[in-house]
Design a protein that fits this description.
By secondary structure, the protein is α+β, with helices and mostly antiparallel strands. It has two domains: 275 residues, Probable tRNA modification gtpase trme, domain 1 (Gyrase A, domain 2), CATH 3.30.1360; 73 residues, Beta Barrel (Elongation Factor Tu (Ef-tu), domain 3), CATH 2.40.30.110. Helices cover 19% and strands 34% of the residues. It is built from eight helices and 19 strands. The strands form four sheets. A six-stranded mixed beta sheet has the order 10-11-12-9-3-13, sandwiched between helices. It has a six-stranded antiparallel barrel with strand order 14-17-16-15-18-19. Helix 2 crosses helix 7.
């Protein structure tokens, strides 16, 4: 098991550590519901240093990455950030990622569970004037999320974080350390992600917690993060996305730029789009108190029409919620389905994603 530069900080705070994507990571500190509430109403602090950071340099990075991903990369301007997906030739998803465009390079952030796979893909497909650097060993990533994030971060940086647009980034001095600060996140709330050197991580983490104490900032673990992203309708690789689940199936068709002349998986995705008969991700709200779990069968009219991909209590919704990969004819909001739990069918209703959207 690997450890992030903040491992000792988590242990000192009494976090419960669990294996995740090859790392020992904090699943919770005070409790998942308490940490969820902090992020929704005040602010939470997450260690995301397990995420893979790859640096891309060279004149050909833009067109090269355009041919490998479904969204546009070459049109990005310095300071921009863009969600994207790498697909296989069958249209399934290798990984969902974010590209950050800096003045003289790109930063690519991949899921920890796919880090080795993505590094192998990038190096194998590298061509032209493209240089790749693996920053996993010397980088860290801290996310400050919640409605009081600007209030907490503002006095600690040398530029006004409120001036950053959503999905943009800027170099700043944060807690007296150099950082790339991005207005991105995975919780459904406003917030920021701070890319810093591994050696600065502990000092920045402590300073943020200290500065945010009066605003109600709390450290938050993977458990709260998963509930927050599910409420916000954001996919998690291995659940709503996989090698055999395409961006179209996951409801991410907005990110697929079919106008590009070519990209890996384009032909398969065009076929899938035109046929429009593919299983797709939909949201479900349970009628009772039984929680849905990944792998549970979804039933309609006595027939299995899909399976649950993610499930949890939804504190912001006040109900148990789930996503499921379903037959397309049963995905209309309002459709009444059942989830089979240990042989018993529990009623559920299809709803439009996301379950929660901030004001």
């Amino acid at each position: 098991m690997k450890r992030t530069p903040l491992y000792s900080e988590h242990v000192a705070l009494g976090a419960r550590m669990v294996p995740f994507a090859g790392f020992e990571m904090p699943v919770q500190y005070a409790g998942i519901l308490q940490e969820h509430g902090a992020v929704r109403h005040r602010a939470g602090l997450f260690d995301l240093s397990h995420m893979a950071q790859f640096e891309l340099r060279g004149e050909d990075v833009g067109p090269w990455a355009d041919a490998l991903t479904v969204n546009l990369v070459s049109t990005m301007k310095p300071g921009g950030a863009r969600y994207n997906l790498f697909c296989n030739e069958s249209g399934g998803t290798h990984d969902d990622v974010i590209f950050y465009r800096l003045d003289d390079r790109w930063l690519l952030v991949c899921n920890a569970s796919n880090a080795d796979k993505m590094w192998a893909l990038l190096t194998q497909r590298r061509s032209g004037d493209v240089a790749l650097t693996d920053r996993r060993a010397d980088s860290a990533l801290i996310a400050l999320q919640g409605p009081r994030s600007i209030e907490i971060l503002g006095p600690l940086v040398d530029r006004d974080p409120a001036a950053l647009r959503y999905y943009s980034s800027a170099r700043m001095t944060a807690c007296s350390r150099p950082a790339l600060v991005a207005r991105t996140g995975y919780t459904g709330e406003d917030g920021f992600e701070l890319f810093i050197a591994a050696g600065d991580a502990a000092a920045v983490w402590r300073r943020l917690l200290e500065a945010g104490r009066t605003a109600g900032l709390e450290p938050a673990g993977l458990g709260a993060r998963d509930v927050l992203r599910l409420e916000a309708g954001m996919p998690l690789y291995g659940h709503e996305l996989e090698e055999d689940i395409s961006p179209l199936q996951a409801g991410l068709g907005w990110a697929v730029k079919f106008e590009k002349p070519r990209f890996t998986g384009k032909t398969a995705l065009e076929r899938q789009r035109d046929a429009d008969s593919y299983p797709r991700i939909a949201g479900l709200v349970m009628s009772g108190k039984a929680p849905a779990r990944p792998g549970y069968e979804v039933v309609h009219g006595g027939a299995v029409v899909g399976e649950v991909r993610s499930g949890s209590v939804g504190p912001s919704v006040g109900r148990n919620i789930a996503t499921a990969l379903l037959r397309p004819d049963v995905t209309q909001p309002g459709a009444r389905l059942s989830i089979r739990i240990r042989g018993v069918e529990h009623e559920a209703e299809v709803v439009k994603l996301p379950f929660y959207k901030r004001a």
